[in-house]
Amino acid sequence: MKILLHMCCAPCACYPVQKLREENFEPTGYFFNPNIHPYQEWRQRLKTAREFADKVDMKIFADNHYGLRDFLDKTYKTVGKITAEDTVKNPDGFHARCKICYAWRLSETAKFAAENNFEIFTSTLFYSKHQNHELMKSIAESVAENFGVKFYYEDFRIGWQKGIDISKQLELYRQNYCGCIFSEEERFSKEIKNARKNFFHAK
Q1: Where in the chain does DSSP place strands (E)?
Q2: Quick check: helix, strand or coil at residue 114?
Q3: What pLDDT digit, counting tens, does each position of 41-93 carry?
Q4: Would you call 176 exposed, middle or buried from its count of C-beta atoms within 10 A (0-12, 13-18, 19+)?
Q5: What is the pTM of this model?
Q6: Tag placement on the chain: N or C end, fewer CB within 10 Å?
Q7: How far apart (Å, rounded) are the C-alpha atoms in residues 33 and 46?
């Protein structure tokens, strides 16, 4: 059975593609990630997604529009009042921002699936250990219902190391932050990383 696979990036697709094929699905990649910043990073991830698809003999569709302005506009309207200082004080508060990103990407995936004769879709977001898994699942189920398609749920996190190993074997470009301008700050800011570490350790 064919399935549309939203790809946040190539490394995160390695294990899901292998697992889906083992379960008799034939995935088709769909790259839609307007959150990625800066432009050079977005271009590199799109290039690597296509490279990966070629190496594993998978068809891929991609939105070639760099959507940073739209992403920032959507994000600012909702969480524009959340400052860097607020992020340090409440390291778990980033989920309000991420919800917008999840909803946009998963909604566009469900829409693309409905318009291109895919009855079912899923996402490589469910491979990442760094995302709000239950929130994504809830959103995916909702948008699937809205567009009249099915969402296939699987916790791909169990293949975390295997995915890393495959990506290295394929010599794929591996990024070191989620993608958005906010996650880049959170990845490299010692103040935010320490605050988040202390926050989760105290819970």
Answers
A1: 2-6, 26-31, 60-62, 120-123, 150-151
A2: helix
A3: 999 999 999 999 999 999 999 999 998 888 888 777 766 555 555 555 555 55
A4: exposed
A5: 0.85
A6: C
A7: 9
